[in-house]
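Quick one:
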Amino acid sequence: MSFAQGMVIVDYANIVIIGLGNVGTSFLKRVIHCSDLGLRIVCVVEPNETKGKKLAQNHAIAVADLDDMIGFGVAVDLIFDLTGDKNVWHTLKSRLADSGNQHTELISQRAIKAMWNILTDEPAPGASPSSTMHHTTYIFDL
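Output:
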């Protein structure tokens, strides 16, 4: 029997979730309760007092600001910007480039929407269903 036979090798991605409004909080809940997704939350970024921020704190997830998050550097693999604010997106993109970090990926909102539809059959908060013959997707604005 070889070393790898019978072993499950899990590759984790270290993630940051930015924006814990309704959509961000729902996404955070999904990540917390689905440990088999291969995602580890490094921190969340939310300046306001929201249910999602409280949920993160209750699960001992660090709450950081953008400066702290950028400072984590290559310890962060993926950033999920769920603020819905294009200014935040552009600021993040610029700050990552300025820091020289070519490792961390800023996940596009289109990709986040697709992931939501893959991960759950539930509509995202504020989503409206768009049905086809074989599948229902949920369209929502971030």
